[in-house]
Design a protein that fits this description.
single chain; 699 residues; mainly beta; 19-stranded parallel sheet; 4-stranded antiparallel sheet; 58 strands; 46% strand
Length: 699
């Protein structure tokens, strides 16, 4: 018995041989049960197979067996418009037999494998090569794939293919389904996926159906393709690949777009980076150019040199994949300590440094007298009032006005082509739980999204590497903000308000002030950002819609990018790249920074400014509690001023010298030495670290 669509009407007909009272060989055409006798020789102990040996597009019959009389037979019956006739092929007759069609020599036509007994004691097996000279071409690949999903049952559908030899209605189809692209682990096609070559000579697995249903599939991701099979059992190329997901779809989340300064790092990825699908997940980030610390991490740290789009591909346990992108915008470092979209105004500069740019005006009010180290560029005017020394260049798109009693050591250039420096475009949101640090209390806060974060008087808030999104960050009087950058950059993003009140201290661990490029404060709204009187803040501040004000005697190290920048008298500010310690506002006082940062060795820094008039600051660091002596000597080795004598805590310390001796008398201009001696209190005097440096007083 064999099935085949001999009349190409898109349904299977039946070829039946054997004995039912008499020997028979009949074809039953599938059309309401009617049948047609092909007048073939009736046989018993037989075998029959359909195959298009002459490549004319319809199925012929290969028949073997024992007739009612005479020797066994092996015949080919040619199908001519539904009428079958013996072609007298001259094949060796066999019974107790098996036959099969197959193109063993891959020449485009069907050959024959025949095996059986010529008589009871004479078995034989033969291959007959078909050298008819009419060759078959493969069908076209199916198109317009679709699938319909109901629960965990999926019905696959496609359009009928065409073929040069076999009518479209006579084609059968072969479905492949897998849980990976080009996979066959769910439904194998028994064909080469890349070429469509059939590995078995038989009908396609879905027969003539142009749709097929698979039931009880597990949740996961699936991929499928289909090919057409003609009457010569040749397979077309496989169709384009379709895919679908059962269950909750896999989703990737690369996180919110980020903006950082050059040389900074930021953590990317979502919270979480993957959801849905079938856990566990694996991650692959691109580009793999060395700017990511781990391209297979859930939330890698990105340190791009320029603005970069990162793409994450997430794969779940069932092989489903999903992708998402995040853009990390890098603001090029142009070594500006201040960048303002409008004006920069500085009142009685306190020995600060760094390059300043304003897209409008730069104004230095009357000095103290004051010396400023750095280049100034303004799109409009630069106005320098009396008692100011600018140790650098001054370049303006309009005028540079230098008052009597002030000097610019470098080049003064007016009517220059000064370009407007663009400020970054920012966008983020926040909202969640309020966080309140009680007075004198301490709270450690993980990266995340919050509403209002308030650090009350003398409270301490500790932050760690990652991104923070808040509505407000308010640090009340004498509050401390300790930022750990040991595992990467820290970005604090406030939608409505950033506030650093009087005597607030921001410190960075473990790298101290040198870690300022790793910390960025950002505010979206236009509320003024205030660094309060005698506060000490390190890091970058970005507030493109707001004014940033540095209040009287405040200290700042980093960079500020804002609509407008105002600096009050007595303030000292330094750029990220400054090598000197940022001094405190009081003369001799244990540094608040020392209480929160880890110092690994003794060090005496160069005083700042140097040369100076009338004051300078000497900074040093202690790795442990130490007996400390800090003394000023003249060039002849005579004691001038004893600044420190006694035990001090470990940490960073700053001492200001006002150019007066121990009697309170003003000293003369000249070169002086300052000497630091420090050692373990239990080791006695004269033990430990000794360092000396020169300073110059100029009047």
């Amino acid at each position: 018995m064999a099935w085949g669509d001999y009349d190409n009407d898109d349904d299977l007909d039946l070829l039946l041989t054997g004995q039912n009272g008499s020997l028979t060989a009949r074809v039953y055409r599938n059309d309401a049960g009617a049948f047609t006798d092909i007048s073939a020789t009736g046989v018993n102990l037989s075998y029959a197979a359909w195959g298009d040996y002459d490549n004319d597009g319809d199925l012929d019959i290969l028949l073997t067996g024992q007739p009612s009389s005479g020797n066994p037979i092996a015949k080919i019956y040619k199908n001519t418009a539904g009428v079958f006739s013996d072609i007298n092929a001259g094949l060796t007759g066999v019974y107790y037999s098996a036959v099969a069609w197959g193109d063993y020599d891959n020449d485009g036509d069907l050959d024959i494998l025949l095996s059986g007994n010529f008589d009871l004691f004479d078995p034989t097996t033969k291959i007959y090569r078909n050298d008819g000279g009419v060759f078959n071409t493969v069908p076209s690949a199916p198109a317009n794939l679709s699938q319909s999903i109901i629960g965990n049952s999926v019905t696959f559908s496609w359009d009928a293919s065409t073929d040069t030899q076999t009518p479209s209605a006579g084609l059968t189809y072969n479905l492949m389904v897998g849980t990976t692209s080009n996979g066959v682990n769910i439904n194998s096609p028994m064909a080469d996926v890349s070429t469509g070559y059939r590995r078995v000579a038989q009908l396609g697995g879905t027969n003539h159906n142009e749709s097929w249903t698979l039931n009880n599939l597990a949740d996961g991701c699936y991929f499928w393709r289909v090919q057409a099979v003609d009457h010569a059992f040749a397979g077309s190329a496989f169709s384009a690949e379709g895919n679908f997901i059962l269950g909750a779809p896999l989703a990737a989340n690369a996180g919110l777009d980020q903006t950082i300064n050059a040389s900074q790092s930021v953590q990317i990825g979502g919270s979480p980076t993957a959801s849905g699908g079938t856990p566990p997940y694996s991650y692959s980030w691109l580009p793999n150019d060395g700017s990511l610390d781990d391209v297979t991490a859930l939330n890698p740290t990105a340190s791009p040199a320029s603005t970069t789009t990162y793409t994450v591909t997430v794969m779940d346990a069932s092989g489903c994949t999903a992708t998402d992108e995040v853009i990390v915008e890098v603001i090029p470092v142009k070594s500006f300590v201040f960048l303002a979209d409008k004006d920069v105004t500085i009142d009685r500069n306190g020995a600060s440094e760094g390059n300043i740019h304003a897209n409008n005006d730069i104004v230095f009010k009357k000095g103290n007298p004051s010396t400023y180290k750095g280049d100034l560029t303004a799109v409009d005017d630069i106005d320098i009032s009396s008692k100011n020394t600018i140790d650098g260049d001054a370049t303006a798109g309009d005028e540079v006005d230098v008052a009597s009693g002030s000097t610019v050591s470098g080049a003064i250039t007016e009517d220059a082509a000064v370009a407007i420096e663009p400020l970054p475009s920012l966008s983020f949101t926040a909202g969640g739980n309020d966080i309140s640090v009680p007075q004198n209390g301490t709270v450690t806060l993980a990266p995340g999204v919050y509403d209002d974060v308030t650090v009350n008087k003398k409270g301490t808030l500790k932050l760690s590497s990652g991104d923070y999104f808040v509505d407000k960050l308010e640090l009340k009087e004498s509050a401390k903000l300790i930022i750990d950058v040991g595992a990467g950059a820290v970005n604090i993003n406030a939608v409505e308000k950033l506030s650093f009140e009087k005597k607030v201290v921001v410190s960075i661990t473990p790298s101290g002030d040198a870690g300022s490029p790793q910390v960025t404060f950002t505010q979206l709204d236009d509320d003024r950002v205030t660094i309060g009187e005698s506060a000490r803040v390190v890091g970058g501040i970005i507030a493109v819609e707001a004014e940033v004000r540095l209040s009287k005697n405040s200290r700042f190290k980093g960079s500020i990018c804002a609509e407008k920048i105002v600096v009050d008298q007595g303030t000292i500010f330094l750029p990220h790249i400054a090598s000197t310690f940022l001094p405190k506002s009081s003369e001799v006082e244990e540094s608040e920074v020392a209480k929160s940062e880890v110092v690994t060795g003794y060090e005496l820094a160069q005083n700042y400014p140097n040369p100076f008039n009338p004051t300078t600051t000497i900074s040093f660091q202690l790795p442990v509690n130490s007996n400390v002596s800090l003394v000023i000597y003249n060039i002849n080795g005579q004691l001038v001023k004893r600044l420190v004598a006694g035990e001090m805590n470990a940490g960073y310390h700053s001492v200001m010298w006002d150019a007066k001796d121990d009697r309170g008398q003003q000293v003369a201009s000249g070169v002086y030495l300052y000497v630091l001696k420090a050692g373990n209190p239990s080791a006695g005097s004269g033990q430990g670290f000794v360092s000396r440096r020169k300073l110059v007083l100029m009047k």
